Amino acid sequence: MSITIYHNPRCSKSRKTLELLEQSGITPTIVEYLNTPPDAETTLRHARLIGIRVADLLRRGEEEFKQANDLPDLDDDSALAKWLEAHPKVIERPIVVDEANDRAVVGRPPENVLELVGK
User: Fold this and answer.
1) Number of domains comprising the chain
2) Residues 87 and 52 reside in one and the same domain
3) Are residues 82 and 65 in the same domain?
4) Catalytic residue (choose from 11, 34, 49, 55)
5) The pLDDT value given to residue 117
6) Rounded to whole angstroms, what are the CA distances from 82 to 2, 42, 71, 95, 115?
7) Which of 33, 56, 59, 83 shows its CA 20 to 30 Å from the CA of 73?
C-alpha cells in the first residue's frame, strides 16, 4: 500500500492520523507540506480524490486566510489551488492519499484515515 500523508507535526490531528496509519502497519511517505507545499496540480488532484471543491480544503480560521488581500474567487478551483501553493498554512490537514488506488481523505477526524486502510 502506497500512502502519503501531507503532515504538520505541530498539529495534534495530523500526529494522531500518522499514529493510526502506523498502528495499521503502514509506513507512509511523509510530506511536511509547510516545508514542501503541494503544487497547484497536486492540490487539484487531492480535492478531486476526496470529492470536494478546493475551497473545502481551506482553513478559514487561519489569520493568513482572514487577512488575505490576494485571495482568488473561492469558486475558481484552479486559481485557488495556485494560491494555496503560495499559502500552504491555509491548507486543511492532514491530507492522506492512497496513491495506488487514487483515493484520499482529510484526517479530520483522524479516524477518517481508516477508510483508506480498510480498518
Assistant:
1) 2
2) yes
3) yes
4) 11
5) 86
6) 26, 10, 10, 17, 28
7) 33
Q: Say yes or no: 44 and 85 in one domain.
A: yes
Q: Do residues 24 and 3 lie in contact, with contact meaning Cβ atoms separated by under 8 Å?
A: no
Is 59 part of the annotated catalytic residue set?
Answer: no
Place of cell 473545502: 56
Buried b vs exposed e over 63-97: b needs ≥16 C-beta within 10 Å?
A: eeeeeeeebbeeeebeebbbbbbebbebbbbbbbb
Q: Based on the domain organization, do 83 and 97 belong to the same domain? A: no
- The answer, yes or no, to whether residue 55 has pLDDT greater than 80, is yes
**119 — pLDDT class (breaks 50, 70, 90):** low
Q: Which domain holds residue 117?
A: 1-33+93-119
Separation CA 114–CA 106 (nearest Å): 11
Residue 81 cell numbers, joined: 489551488
